[in-house]
Amino acid sequence: MSSSAVAEPSVSAKSKNTPGRVVLASLIGTSIEFYDFYVYATAAVLVFPALFFANTDDATVALLSSFAVFGVAFVARPVGALFFGHFGDKYGRKVTLVASLLTMGISTFIIGLLPTFDTIGYWAPALLVLMRFGQGLGLGGEWSGAVLVATENAPPGKRAFWGTFPQLGAPIGFIIANGVFLMINWLLPHPDDPTQASEAFLAWGWRIPFLVSAVMVIVGLWVRLSLVESDSFTRVVKEGAVRKLPLTAVFKSSWRNLIIGTFAMVATYSLFYLMTTFTLTFGTKPTIGQVTAGGAALPADYVSGLGFGRNDFILMMIVGVIFFGLFTLISGPFADALGRRKLLIWVTIAIILFGFTFTLFLGGNADDNPRFVGAMAMAFLIIGFTLMGMTFGPMGALLPELFPANVRYTGSAFAYNLASILGAAVAPFIAVWLWSVGGGNPWLVGIYLSSMGVLTLIALLASKETKDDDYEGNIQ
Questions:
Q1: Residues 389, 390, 396, CA angle at the centre, nearest 5°?
Q2: 3-state DSSP of 361-377
Q3: CA end-to-end span of the chain
Q4: Whole-structure pTM over 0.90, yes or no?
Q5: In angstroms, rounded to a whole number, what is the distance separating the alpha carbons of residues 60 and 63?
Q6: pLDDT 10s digits, 397-415
Q7: Domains plus CATH for the chain?
Q8: What single string gives the DSSP state of each residue in 102-113?
Q9: What is the rounded CA–CA span in Å between residue 166 and residue 143?
């Protein structure tokens, strides 16, 4: 039942795990993984509706189809959590992290090579679904391994702060992915309509970010291959506590914490994917005035947005994500001092209240006062991403602390990724539908976010503080 034959060589090399190497390995891996993931998220709005779902003349149906494929990865993530979590708890964090990174990277690279609907018909979206599943499979095993590398090597009393470094991969990956898209779009010829992508971008430019990911994956592999196992895992091996079936052990001994961990992440996931995928769609959708300019007829049941050019709004989002990264780091020391539970309860209450402000920030009419609408949209992005950093940062410590060391990879990965289905997989799809039902006003989208926040608040109130628990010696 023990995996000592696999893990014990790492014990003698333990001294080579310097703080700088641990931080870099946990940060660079998640940055690459999230870069890959966000490249797809951006393309799901900018190009995939036109290139892979050209079988419909209804732009809304094409967009919803693209978001449905976007959600496939979230279905795959719990599968990846179970698969990679099993091996991470049996054979160690290092080899599992390398495998998850390769799975994600190869899937992303192949997306950049896929032929479109006009070339191979329905095979195009089918292959896109398959590669999207591969992306989700890899990310399902990535996050938990990265946060365990950070937190299991953290100095006493600093787990939440060290746990924010892999969390920084989310804003860093987002900025790089969208920055690459932005640069490519700027270098290519611009269309007359600033809300549309250029012909060159649709023809081949969109492929570059997917193909570039191969270089980043190679760098990530080089860093991670230099890692050795943590004291927590080597202690599990020495004590013969490696479980034959970690998932069974998790459900047997930690089922309550599995539920709490899952719902503790629901608001975090919902907020992030509303702040990124939905707002990009809403912010760049033309206003009624833009559509009817020059006497053009307004399509039946048209749902308007803010009418920003794509490049302009992506720049605004990057500014917001800078606040995301900053407050992710800030949240760590606060969570170490105040406790994970107390901090997250107050942040979740703020998220619930934020959901009631969507109309205030996004309900303006850019046809009447574009500067005011732009300022309010920027304020919305800054506030939303600030809250995102404050709720996402402490999760790097909270979720692993809910589970014993010998099933920690499986437990934290499964809770994290199961929450992705409940909080993120359906969020863009539901948001677009609620936006349509609201006649172009996003107030129902805000109510949806608040309802997810209530679920998270209940989970946090039902949990206990974990910051002073015996992290290394907690073995069952």
A1: 80
A2: HHCCCCCCCHHHHHHHH
A3: 14
A4: no
A5: 5
A6: 999 999 988 888 899 998 9
A7: 4-461 (1.20.1250.20)
A8: HHHHHHHHHHTT
A9: 8
